[in-house]
Specification:
The structure is a single chain. With about 950 residues, the protein is an alpha+beta fold. It has 35 helices and 31 strands. The longest helix has 28 residues, at about 5-30. It is elongated. The relative contact order is 0.08. Keywords: Coiled coil, Signal. This is ABC1 family protein.
């Protein structure tokens, strides 16, 4: 291919691109002044005109441009219909190459005359494509075959076309920054040349055939590799000639024949999708070019798809396969944490912290396909894109011009590009055949199989399931054996930590971070703990009382003026702590109708200040299941004059040196350590046999099954995890919570440093991750900078964010000095333990025979003596302490249940230590006393 031809091809490509670009720009200006009807007709004509230009140029240039046109012709879900109708012609054969050229290539490659190889060779080709043409033939031994012969000189043309395509894409990205396809063309430049080696294609064909013929156990135990597809046998290959078994089939664009043979197009595309799911998720080896020309349908029932052309076949690593599976399943579950984890494992880096938009974009790839007639899909995608751009603009404080030039993706892995290209081609295939495919249903078993692997079947090696750390005591060794006995059927992920006499005796982590996140739980992993958070919030209120900022007998309205409306003037601080304010169901109906209201801290405080109590203050103890947090949170902020998060850090986190492992509403930057929730469906069924114990709002129990199944979906989203919900949104490690209760058990004495064997050391994380300065731009007078985090997330940096996190932190030395300066106690009052449990001089502030002291659930031993306090949460996580024996314990779980695992763990530890067992964890509580919602087992209810 001489320089003259090279320059000519380049000029033709760029002159056509400019012509089309200016045509669209001109029409864009012109249609602003016409009616809607005329506007639509004008755009249709413009699309048709430019589609014909593109088609003519692609046919003239052949090579790579034909392949690109074939790809575009399958995108009926996103391209305007005129383009699909015109470019469809490229799926048919191109003009054939001369027989002399074909003969010369065959004889040169095979090293013998054609007559020695073939008994018969059909001169008219079956098809002529961009790289090669295919002839039907009969071998000398009588076998029916097809012969694929590479076009003479096509290699040089393809390589030149790739350069031109790369230059064109770069120009488009410069002219219209929002259309930056550079990552895609870069990957194509790397992969496309592989199609030019037919030995490579032959080996790929054999490999895919072997893979799809093996039976594969897929997740639920069903055998999935009854993937019913046909792949031709490879007879012989060279660099430029490939001889394959002949299979008689119908082309996918031959709709009349498909109808005549009674082919079920829905099942056909579903089977093709299953075959690709198997290739991607099970084998990690898949054909990257599934356009309609690469499929036939067998004429004999059950009309299996025939897979052809494995030149562009991609092998991906096991880690990438798992990351792609995690991305798919996190989209299916709406799990932001797993999605961001998948992105990180794939090597996809984001410049901006917008998890909801990341989920929206990722979910687009796995959405249900639409038929070609449903053009509204294009508008829906366009509308979604506009919403995401607007959110980006608001987040980054960018103007229109700046947001067009800002690319939120810092790095996009090539393997993921080929994967997404395959999904797009499959989507186009279903659109062109006018069928709908539910990808989530078809691909889920394959993704689950590869992601979970041995974790869902068989015995997992102990070294992989229990986090590798030395046992602190004999009781910890026995506990670990007990956890292994329970196994992954009852436990997904778990942490257990216990202090005795200020010393760590248990610090165990086991299992994995989520149902679709097989990373191991570590001691510093953060678990969502729901009502366990109430015990932390209560501790903050007591701290303010201890500091002289607040009094238990003080009316809330005196501290929080807006609260004193709708007969709430007599409600006192101790009524809130003791669940006797009468506001047990405050905001229940509002949150039910608008669950995302919980993410708006200020608005929720305003709403709760307007609520009306249902009972007289102090008259009845009814569990404040959700309102407790906002009621106490409002008091904390108004009494302290500080943000809720600042008080939490000052009162608890820094003095106990548990930075980075106890939050109520997480900051950006800790996502990689988050455990994801799931539900123990078997235990959930037991709820039908449980009635509310005294003091449980009926509204809560009526919705408990629905709520329990819906909670993981809601609380696995980052926008909810980042919200301040001080009754239900704690994130902590067991070692941080156990240390908190170890301090409370002694009336506030700070325990000695946590065990040195616990890695990473407790307190080694920065509580609010720092973001290195890397300004995007400067704006006079804003006093703000845009900074990129160590994880690639771009953040606004100011004195504090909307949740009260200080983004410009003092140095570590300052933090240590502050912690040291706080003294060896977090409470100075010698009566603080009585206040926690509501005994002694505080007995009049609690409801007689109630389950709660001032903010804490108080437990009795077998003799009925009050000696324990703490707080459990929905799903099974708990933290508590035994004052008399100076013992504290925390258990974190991410498989939500009625608490049977937690009760078993607590009983084993306490019985081994010879300590009494609190009634909540006793054998009589198998059905779930206060572990979930103050519920009592049916046999104990009258």
């Amino acid at each position: 291919m001489g320089w003259g031809n090279t320059i000519t091809r380049r000029l033709k490509v760029f002159s056509m691109a400019l012509l089309i670009y200016f045509d669209y720009k001109a029409v864009q200006k012109r249609v602003q002044w016409v009616s809607t009807t005329k506007k639509s007709a004008t755009w249709t004509k413009t699309h048709e005109r430019n589609a014909r230009r593109v088609l003519n140029l692609m046919i003239e240039l052949e090579g790579l441009w034909v392949k690109m046109g074939q790809y575009l012709s399958t995108r009926a879900d996103v391209l305007p219909e005129p383009y699909i109708n015109v470019l469809k012609q490229l799926q048919d054969s191109l003009p054939p190459r001369p027989l002399e050229e074909v003969r010369g290539t065959i004889e040169k490659e095979l090293g013998k005359p054609m007559s020695d190889v073939f008994a018969d060779f059909v001169l008219d080709p079956l098809a002529t494509a961009s790289i090669a043409q295919v002839h039907r033939a009969t071998l000398a031994d009588g076998r029916e075959v097809v012969v694929k012969i590479q076009h003479d000189g096509i290699k040089e043309i393809i390589l030149e076309d790739l350069k031109n395509a790369k230059s064109l894409i770069e120009w488009i990205a410069w002219a219209e920054p929002q259309y930056n396809f550079n990552p895609m063309i870069d990957e194509w430049c790397k992969e496309a040349p592989k199609e030019l080696d037919f030995n490579h294609e032959a080996e790929n064909t054999r490999t895919v055939s072997r893979n799809l013929s093996h039976k594969t156990d897929c997740g639920s135990g069903s055998i999935s590799s009854a993937v019913h597809v046909l792949i031709p046998e490879v007879i012989q290959s060279t660099d430029k000639v490939l001889i394959l078994e002949y299979m008689d089939g119908i082309r996918l664009n031959d709709n009349d024949s498909l109808e005549a043979y009674g082919v079920d197009k829905q099942k056909l595309v579903e089977e093709i999708t299953r075959a690709y799911a198997h290739q991607i998720y099970i084998d990690g080896f898949f054909n990257g070019d599934p356009h309609p020309g690469n499929f036939l349908v067998s004429k004999e029932p059950p009309h299996k798809p025939i897979l052809l052309d494995f030149g562009l076949t991609k092998r991906i690593s096991k880690s990438m396969t798992q990351a792609l599976a995690k991305m798919f399943l996190s989209c299916a579950e709406g799990d932001h944490v797993a999605l961001l984890s998948a992105f990180a494992e794939m090597g996809l880096k984001l410049r901006v912290d917008m998890p909801q938009q990341a989920m929206d974009i990722a979910t687009v790839f796995f959405r249900q396909s639409t038929t070609a007639s449903e053009a509204k899909n294009i508008k829906a995608l366009s509308d979604q894109r506009e919403r995401n751009v607007k959110a980006l603009q608001e987040k980054m404080k960018l103007n229109k011009k700046e947001v067009q030039k800002f690319n939120p993706v810092d790095a996009f892995p090539g393997d993921a590009i080929i994967f997404m290209r395959v999904l797009n081609l499959l989507r186009g295939l279903s659109a062109s055949l006018n069928v709908k495919i539910v990808y989530l249903d078809i691909m889920r078993p394959f993704a689950e199989s590869t992601l979970l692997g041995s974790l869902t079947h068989g015995q997992i090696p102990n070294s992989q399931w229990i986090y590798d750390s030395p046992a602190n005591s004999d009781v910890e060794s026995k506990l670990r054996n007990y956890l292994l006995e329970l196994g992954s059927d009852k436990i997904l992920g778990i942490q257990v930590c216990a202090y005795k006499d200020g010393k760590v005796i248990i610090d165990t982590a086991a299992g994995m971070l989520g149902k679709y996140d097989p990373r191991p739980v570590q001691p510093d992993s953060l678990f969502p703990v729901f009502s366990v958070t109430k015990g932390i919030t209560a501790g903050m209120v007591h701290w303010l009382v201890n500091e002289g900022k607040l009094k238990y007998e003080e009316t809330v309205a005196n501290i929080w003026p807006n609260f004193g409306t709708n007969t709430k003037e007599l409600i006192k601080v101790h009524h809130l702590l003791n669940h006797t304010s009468g506001l047990h169901n405050a905001l229940g109906d509002v949150v039910k109708s608008d669950p995302m209201l919980v993410c708006d801290w200020e608005e929720t405080l305003n709403q709760i200040a307007k609520c009306t109590p249902e009972t007289e203050p102090g008259s009845a103890q009814i569990y404040h299941y959700l309102s407790f947090g906002w009621l106490c949170g409002g008091v904390i902020e108004h009494a302290s004059g500080k943000k809720f998060q600042e008080v939490l850090e000052e009162a608890i986190v820094r003095p106990l040196h548990i930075e980075g492992e106890l939050y109520i509403g997480i900051p950006p930057g800790v996502e990689s350590r988050l455990a994801a929730l799931t539900v123990d469906t078997e235990e959930l069924q037991k709820l039908s046999g449980i009635r509310a114990g005294p003091g449980v709002p009926p509204e809560l129990l009526n919705n408990v099954a629905q709520m329990a199944s819906g909670v993981p979906v809601l609380f696995n989203t980052l926008n909810v995890r980042r919200a301040i919900i001080p009754a239900a949104n704690g994130h902590c490690s067991a070692r941080a919570l156990a240390r908190y209760y170890a301090a409370l058990a002694t009336g506030g004495s700070i325990p000695p440093p946590h065990s040195a064997d616990s890695k990473p050391p407790l307190g080694s994380h920065v509580h609010t991750p720092k973001f290195p300065t890397a300004p995007l731009k400067k704006k006079k007078g804003t006093g703000k900078k845009k900074c990129v985090s160590s994880t690639g997330n771009l953040q606004d940096v100011s004195n504090s964010d909307k949740n009260g996190y200080s983004q410009l932190r003092t140095s570590d030395a300052d933090d240590e000095a502050a912690a040291a300066g706080s003294g060896s106690r977090i409470f100075s009052s010698d009566k603080i333990l009585d206040a926690f449990m509501g005994v002694g001089e505080y007995e009049s502030m609690v409801h007689p025979n109630g389950k709660f002291g001032l903010g804490f659930r108080r437990y009795s031993n077998a003799s009925g003596t009050l000696r324990f306090f703490g707080h459990s949460g929905m799903g099974g996580s708990t933290g508590f302490c035994d004052v008399e024996n100076n013992f504290a314990m925390a258990v974190m779980v991410n498989k939500m249940s009625l608490g049977s695992v937690t009760r078993g763990v607590v009983r084993l530890v306490l019985e081994e230590l010879g300590l009494p067992v609190p009634d909540e964890f006793s054998t009589s509580g198998e059905k779930g006393p206060d572990m979930v919602l103050n519920l009592a087992p049916p046999e104990q209810q009258s």
